Amino acid sequence: MNQEGLDSRIGLEGQTRENAGKQFALKQREHIRIKEQEEIDQLLAQSPSRMKELAETIVASMKESMVMQAMTSGSTIALISSANGFQSPASGQAVGTGPDTSFRKSLTYTRDALLSHSRDLESFFHRTQIRPPFDPSSAVFASPHVSSRLREWTTSPTPGLLSLAGPKQSLNALTPSPMTTVASQYVSFASQSRLPVISYFCELPRGERLRKGNTPEAQSLVAVIYALIRQVVELLPMEFESRLDLGEERFAMLDGSLKTWKQTLSLLGDLFCEIRSVLFCVVDGWQWLDDRSTNESLAQFLRLLRGGIGAESSGFKLKVLLTTAGRSHCLLENLSRTALVLADQIEGPPGKRRSAGSRLDFDV
Q1: Closest alpha carbon to 130 in 200, 71, 78
Q2: Spatial CA neighbour of 224 closest among 284, 307, 280
Q3: Averaged over 79-102, what is the pLDDT?
Q4: Do the beta carbons of residue 185 and residue 140 sit within 8 Å?
Q5: What is the pLDDT of residues 204-240, one digit of tens each?
Q6: What is the Cα–Cα distance from 43 to 56, expressed in whole angstroms?
Q7: What DSSP line would sit under 153-215, residue for residue?
Q8: β-strand 107-110 against 197-201: which pairing, if any?
Q9: d(CA 112, CA 110)
Q10: Are the beta carbons of 199 and 322 closer than 8 angstroms?
Q11: If you write DSSP's letter for every residue of 214-235 in order, what string do you get?
């Protein structure tokens, strides 16, 4: 604590001492705010070098091999890049963006207040699924193509979404899928590189009571987005001004079901707009969210993760990595097939092999 601030209250009593204490607290908060802003400015300046460091670290951890260690003969790793292949909604409208705020007066918010407003969301997801206890030092075997694309995507200064699909894995598997290990390492290395990262590792609820109206997939989808909301709040500046409505009421209306899905998407989209630096978002196990009950909601969530990129003039950059064990119908239906390429050669008809980069037709 600043000694000069303490000295200013020595010998004071009553209301005078209380006022001096308040002034001291204000000075301390301003000092912290300035320091946080300096850290944000430094992050913005160093982001390119840190992203390069992250890319080299994750690629170095991948032992180059023509096949993943856990893959059986004939399996493939598909890579979906949505940079040019995303199927936009017919309406052309961005999902999760609120009304025009140009006429609104800026309000002052604090991170502590928003943490308080969002604390009840903790009961709808598991903290262990944000950073699961997987061994981040586990060897990851990936083809040169996967390593190259991951490096290219990481170091690119532009926002974007990348989806890596590995071999299908049973829900009851005792070990994490290869792509889950990739995602886990990516989150770990991003944190080590001091890059802002939010994440969630999806799984279907086991032995957990389903809330009224929820299917297992719907409950898992709600868990993902509530966890992301909570993490974004934790990354906000200690104090900031915004024309967006981030009041307690918006958090309070979220009830853990898809009935308030529109409000949930809108809130997450607005929170993304308050992040001024590059933000990495990693979601593993997207395929577990696929279901008739979540078709529309999941597609809207995907559009938000892409459509919110570079929204308004906030200057934030969202880089999204989705990893799956097997096929995700949502990704196949909403990302262009032309963006789906093979990471390796795969087994074809007897005596023939298909080359890396050839198109793969799915019978979905």
Answers
A1: 200
A2: 284
A3: 44
A4: yes
A5: 988 889 999 999 999 999 999 999 999 999 999 999 9
A6: 18
A7: HHH-SS-EEEEEEE----TT-SS--HHHHHHHHHHHHHHHTT--EEEEE----SS-PPPTT--
A8: unpaired
A9: 5
A10: no
A11: --HHHHHHHHHHHHHHHHHHHH
Whole-model pTM: value is 0.74
**In sequence order, which ranges of the chain are alpha helices (DSSP H)?**
3-7, 14-61, 111-117, 144-155, 178-192, 216-235, 248-252, 261-272, 295-307, 329-334
Which residue would you say has higher pLDDT here, 29 or 363?
29
Name which of 232, 234, 179, 233 is nearest 202 in CA terms.
Answer: 179
Task: Select from 265, 189, 192 the least CA-distant residue to 226.
Answer: 265
What is the Cα–Cα distance from 320 to 33, expressed in whole angstroms?
28
Q: Which two tokens stand for residue 51?
A: 């992203």
Is residue 221 within 8 Å of residue 297, measured between CB atoms?
yes
**Token pair for 108:** 């002052």
Sequence letter at residue 219? Q
Residue linked to tokens 């020595």 = 10
For helices 295-307 and 216-235, give the axis angle rounded to 10 degrees.
20
Both tokens of residue 163?
């989806």
What confidence category does residue 38 fall into, taking pLDDT thresholds of 50, 70 and 90? Answer: low
Instruction: Output the CA–CA distances (angstroms, integers) from residue 85 to 1, 88, 94, 300, in the order listed.
Output: 54, 9, 16, 16
100: tokens are 């025009």
